[in-house]
Amino acid sequence: MSMKRTGQALTVLLLLFAFGCSGAQETVSPIASQSPTNNTNTDDAGETGDTAVQETSGTIDDLLVVANPTAAVVLVNKQYSLPEGYEPQDLVYPDVAFTFTEKIDKRMLRKEAADALEQLFAGASGDGIQLAGVSGYRSYDRQKTLFDNYVKKDGEEAARMYSAFPGTSEHQTGLAIDVTGADGKCAAEDCFAATPEAGWLADHAWEYGYIIRYPEGKDSITGYKYEPWHIRYVGKELAKELNERDITLDEYYSAVPVSEKR
Prior knowledge:
With about 260 residues, the chain is an alpha+beta fold. It has a single domain (about 5-250), classed as Muramoyl-pentapeptide Carboxypeptidase, domain 2 (2-Layer Sandwich), CATH 3.30.1380.10. About 30% of the residues lie in helices and about 15% in strands. The protein contains eight helices and nine strands. The strands form three sheets. The chain has a four-stranded antiparallel β-sheet with strand order 6-7-9-8. The protein has a three-stranded mixed β-sheet with strand order 1-2-3. A hairpin with an 8-residue loop joins strand 1 and strand 2 (about 65).
């Protein structure tokens, strides 16, 4: 392990220890106790910092709340939640094509992620690949509305199998976006995996600071099925490391497993 990597690990441990000694009832492990899930994320289809966590009270499944939601490398999943009502303060409209024309929330990303997305789209275009955005930022309230509607339709247990509980959607960070080909076909659908656009993203997204957040064969770790269209900005340095080591953001923080499915 390199000195740099060791320093990062020590920083994480110190941050976790600090929260365990400053108001939380007990020291929090980065691995939460959770029931087995096999979830599909179909909602609204269409830096090198570290993550510290603290326990929440009165939340389903004893979610942990991230201490630094603005970090580009923040871990948000079925264990780690954003603070309730969190909204990024630097949301902008990236100058890229989308599958719709309206200037609405899901067209936005945080500034750093938006700039990187513009470069990614330009790089893809230079290689003959035309991309389009499908869904970027999603507010807590929007996610809650979606989730509540799914609960009314299918019941909570079933809804949690395909929809992110409010506060645990990566889209709320403003750092994640679903993309597709310029023709809009296979948008947020399994058939996207077989497209040239998906292949290009798998090979090149990391060069622009993005990762395939829910890669194939990692559903037992991420808690979500393979989503080749869902890319997440983490910065070039970390994206390069995750690509070289072939690991997820969850594995990077040793926050596994999310699901007990093997």
